Amino acid sequence: MVFVVVCPNCKNTQRTDPKLKKLSDVSNKSKRCVYCGKTFKIHKNQKDSQIVKVE
Question: Are 50 and 8 in contact (CB under 8 A)?
Fold first, then answer.
């Protein structure tokens, strides 16, 4: 399962494969932006979700 996420700082989209055992573990994962270097959580809650699409 690959997520397409958007960086909250520079708004660029990128793909990530968080290697989840179950879908509820996504709240613990973070991603470093390859464009600006900011580290962000990919899914804190439904309101703050950075996930754009699931492939």
Answer: yes
Going by pLDDT thresholds of 50, 70 and 90, the confidence category of residue 44 is low
Q: How far is Cα 33 from Cα 10, in angstroms, rounded to an integer?
A: 9
Q: Is the pTM of this model over 0.85?
A: no
Phi and psi, residue 29, nearest 5°: -90, 145
> Which of 24, 48, 39, 45 shows the shortest CA–CA distance to 16?
39
Token pair, residue 55, equals 């492939």
Rounded CA-CA distance 9/18 in Å is: 20
